[in-house]
Amino acid sequence: MIKLFRFLKPYRLQVVLVLVLVFLQSLAELYLPTLMADIVDRGVVQGDTSYIWRIGGLMLLVAGAGAVCAVGGSLWAARSSGGFARDLRSRVFAHVERFSLNEFDKIGTASLITRTTNDITQVYQVLTIAMRVMVMAPMMCFGGIVMAVSKDAPLSLVIIAIVPVLAGFIIFVFRKAGPLFRAMQTKLDKLNLVLRENLTGIRVIRSFNRVEHEQRRFDGANSDLTDTAIKVNRIMAVMMPVMMLALNFAGIAIIWFGGIRIEYGHMQVGDLIAFIQYSWQIMFSLMFAAMMFTMIPRAAASAARINEVLNMTPDIRDGAASGQTLASGPSLEFRNVTFSYPGAEMPALKDVSFTAGPGEVTAIIGGTGSGKSTLVNLIPRFYDVDEGKILIGGVDVRDMPQESLRKLIGLVPQKAMLFTGTIADNIRFGDGQAADEDIRRAAEIAQAAEFISGMNDGFESPISQGGANVSGGQKQRLAIARALVRKPGIYLFDDSFSALDFKTDAKLREALQSEIADSTVIIVAQRVSTVMDADRIIVLDEGRIAGVGTHQRLMQTSDVYREIVASQLSEEEIA
Ligand code: ADP
Ligand code: MG
């Protein structure tokens, strides 16, 4: 948790202000019972009315000043820790944005969300309270003891007897509740995971009639979290009454012994009243400290989870070959590339070599799981190769800054992803500076113009979350338009034509031809008809290249390719 405090730095003046205000507030509160004792002993007992007025007025002033300090302290505490939480959140978010897919795989999306929201809130809450209690509790406790002793030393023995008992009890509660608080964060992660899966997979869940099963799964995670929360709260609930009981017993003892001391003339009535107030202040300060301490384990667990995210350095770093601007349509070369996913037994790509030149269409075909998407994802460095090199325009992709590398690339991913906003927003995502005319043209080439104009607001029609209000094929075409508007040197189409019918597929590829003439184009496909007229077809089989060549050549030389062709032809003939 200490490590996170570096984010408090911009607010250090405010924090100091809070500490000073709380300090002043504590002084005021420590002073009040003494004034009260004076009023009783000198004013009331001796019948000195003007003294009562004078000290009474002073008490009002002190109390008023204390109140102002209290309000100010709370206000600035809330402000500075609020700012701290905001900075921390944006820092975590910015950091996560730089993660490669490896890091996402490691922590998991659900947990990343909890860490950015709930975990930061935990730390924020403790910080808000701690800033005040940190000063308040020791001030009131030790100040109270000093004041109590100065009022009547022998009677202070009562307080000295009760404090260790309370402290022991607090430590006991702290020990018990700490691990449970930590467990709660993990259980919250689990709940978020199940909830996320349920919300995103609602169609699948309904269609497979798994609603009840999922309900049970959610109930399981939910009651798991609830049980822990109840356990924690049961412990915490015991704390308050026990403390109050101790406090009241202490009160009885003080009045009892105090009464005896007054009877023998060792003590005055006003001092006894003040003494009782000091004893309350001491014990309440202990209680506040205890409450803060019970919150700390949970916040510490949260802080550790946040730090884990912040300390994770992205595997993928910028290369140094900056300033190098590559001509549009650079060549793309794979040189003996081997790559395995972390923890996988078999490499997803093994010794893959090929060159794709500008103005050429290189198609990649192969069964599912043959490594096509993996090959495409290595080019923008979503992952780094284990062996070999990927060269763009003769430069290793690892030697380029990621931004300039990705500027060269127009990727249409296998799972087309749209964002909330309008259709135009989504296409403009490819190039923020794109003019309306460019967007229209990109949509036309992507064969999306027709369905867009059929929508109520045309290009201004809204896209709902995840693009749920357009079909799979429409989504793919918008994703293609988004890549086109970017006018990149390298196009990567990862199975981007799979949801299109044969006619649209053909029309789209024809329109693409003229548009992307100088670019290097990689088209991943499962359909033979999509790749047939490519300049070069690469056949992937279990991560290895099983053949390279044109359609005609592969028909003669590659068994794997012939098999693929045969299976698709027979399918169509049967249909
Ligand atoms: P294709 O796109 O040809 O269907 P992929 O490139 O997606 O195939 O997958 C190739 C292999 O890599 C598969 O065996 C798959 O299980 C594995 N794989 C894909 N993505 C991951 C990942 N994120 N983590 C681990 N293994 C993966
Ligand atoms: Mg794929």
Descriptors:
Rossmann fold; 3 domains; ABC transporter transmembrane region fold; 575 residues; alpha/beta; binds adenosine-5'-diphosphate; binds magnesium ion
Describe this entry's structure for a reader.
Helices cover 64% and strands 10% of the residues. It has 575 residues and is α/β, with parallel strands linked by helices. It folds into 3 domains: 2-311, ABC transporter transmembrane region fold; 316-408 and 488-575, P-loop containing nucleotide triphosphate hydrolases (Rossmann fold); 416-487, P-loop containing nucleotide triphosphate hydrolases (Rossmann fold). The strands form 3 sheets. It has a 6-stranded mixed β-sheet, sandwiched between helices. The protein has a 4-stranded antiparallel β-sheet with strand order 2-1-4-5, covered by helices on one side. It has a two-stranded antiparallel ribbon with strand order 7-8. Helix 1 (12-44) runs antiparallel to helix 2 (49-97) and helix 12 (436-445) crosses helix 14 (472-484). The chain is elongated and about 120 Å long. The mean pLDDT is 89. Residues 372-373, 414, 495 line the site of magnesium ion.
Give the CATH level 1 class of the largest domain: Mainly Alpha
Q: Tell me the major beta sheet.
A: 6 strands, mixed
> According to CATH, what is the topology of the largest domain?
ABC transporter transmembrane region fold
The CATH architecture term of the largest domain is Up-down Bundle
Question: In terms of per-residue confidence, which ranges show pLDDT below 50 for 5 or more consecutive residues?
Answer: none
Classification by helices and strands = alpha/beta
Give the overall shape.
elongated
Number of helices: 18
- DSSP strand tally: 12
Order of helices and strands: HHHHHHHHEEEHEEHEEHHHEHEHEHEEHH
What quaternary form is this? Answer: single chain
Rg on CA atoms, Å: 36 Å
Distance between the termini: 64 Å
Main β-sheet, spatial strand arrangement: 6-9-10-3-11-12
Q: Roughly what fraction of the amino acids lie in strands?
A: 5-15%
What is the count of distinct domains? 3
List of distinct ligands in this structure: adenosine-5'-diphosphate, magnesium ion
CATH-defined superfamily of the largest domain: ABC transporter type 1, transmembrane domain
